[in-house]
Amino acid sequence: MATRIVLSATGGADVLQLQALQAQQPGPGQVWLEQRAIGVNPLDILQRKGGAPLALPSGLGLEGAGRVMAVGEGVFNVQPGDRVGYATGPVGAYASGRLYPAERLVKLPQGLSEEAAAAVLFKGITAQYLLKTTYPVGPGTQILLYGAAGALGQLLAPWACHLGATVIGVVSRPQSVARAQAAGCQHVLVFDAATLAGQVRELTQGQGVDVVYDCVGKDSLQASLDSLRPRGLLVSFGGTSGAPAPVEVATLNAKGSLYLTRPSLAAHTATPEAYQQRASDVLAAVAEGIIRPTVWRRYPLAEAARAHGDLEQGLSQGALVLTA
User: Fold this and answer.
1) Has residue 270 been placed in a domain?
2) What would the pLDDT profile of 164-186 be if each residue is shown by its tens digit?
3) How far apart are CA 68 and CA 78, in angstroms?
4) Which of 44, 229, 241, 269 is deepest in the core (most CB within 10 A)?
5) Count: domains in the chain
6) pLDDT tens, 184-213?
7) Is 286 a domain residue?
8) Between the CA of residue 258 and those of 2, 150, 206, 208, what are the distances in Å?
9) Hey, which bits of the chain come out as E strands?
10) What's the domain range around 90?
């Protein structure tokens, strides 16, 4: 008997309820997966709290890995027994077994475990599009990276360095500085909204950075805008402190013809071709040692609420994975 996490209302971690689930026969274009590992991501918490819409009742989670057990009509890219992972919707990854669209599956290479796949695919694809599409990072690029010691930051920083960038990392507490440095940040600042922009200007000889990757949101918005060079780009892609406030168009002009974007993984993986290309780039970066999947802690599926609590409290030092 399979199990899954279901929520009938949004709210605290206690809305996550474990429920029995019968194995289902896949329909056309689908597979039935027996999952071994499920990735936990900040978006899951945002959806659980109601900050991102879900049609309730609903499952949760967008990232998992396991083995194909059955395939539906018209499925030719995978077969029973294949080890696979995925990092996009439909939601419902918090489960020991589930139906999933075959075209969104990524075959796992030998040597990459299901746990490692669940730790790296969602965050790795996010890092890939942020560095290669949202802003084309290359030699000489100067980056300000929030969350540099977190699970995503530990992928973004070394990959950006590999591409030739200088990375100024931002962390929330002094204890995280060493971890951000180990990830490849040439400079690390402890966040203070009042002083951050001045520190960045000092490190860049008054110029400002080319691009800011801001996953904090509300508390960091003004500091991020003030850290940019003229015609620089603010990439707002998270909201750990809450949703950022609206920005007046005139403000972007006054601060140096700045650019502002709010990208999403869904928009960057809208077609199977784009999704598979980005996933392949991530797996190649893992194989080459550019980035490393790092599992900080494993939790049984039934303890998903505890995993959410640890992530919300900022305790994690890498990826969190549920095991099924």
Assistant:
1) no
2) 999 999 999 999 999 999 999 99
3) 8
4) 44
5) 2
6) 999 999 999 999 999 999 999 999 999 999
7) no
8) 50, 27, 16, 12
9) 2-6, 17-21, 30-40, 64-71, 83-86, 97-101, 106-107, 142-146, 166-171, 187-190, 209-214, 228-236, 259-261, 295-300, 319-323
10) 2-112+293-323
